[in-house]
Structure prediction request, 84 residues.
Amino acid sequence: MLTYLGSPQVLRDVAYGIVRNNVTGMMIERNPEFAKTDLGRFVNMFLTVFIACLMSAPGNEYRGTMFSIWRAWHLEVTAGKAVV
Prediction:
């Protein structure tokens, strides 16, 4: 069960990390002087997290779908049995 339900979450988290690292690099390369200021760090971090969340959002849907499929199967298998 953990492998089945954990895999979508791991894939989503890996995608988030990859996108976040790439976007951070692009934002700093775009204007290195601005990235050194407080406002620059704030703007870069906000945009980086926002874009990474958008890009990894389909992983949330996939994870939810896998959980609902597992839950339906689990309820079918345990129908009539006491589940602890």
